[in-house]
Amino acid sequence: MMRLSRYLARSGAASRRAAERLIDEGRVSVNEEVVRQQGVKVDPLHDEVRLDGQLLKLPAEQMTLMLHKPAGYVTTMDDPQGRPTVAELVPLDAYPSLFPIGRLDRDTTGLLLFTTDGDLGNALAHPSHAVDKHYRARIDAPLGSRALDRLRRGVDLDGRMTAPARVQMVERGAHPVYAITIHEGRNRQVRRMFETVGASVIELHRAQIGPLSLGDVPCGCWRELTSAEVDALVGR
Question: Is 105 one of the catalytic residues?
Answer without folding.
Answer: yes
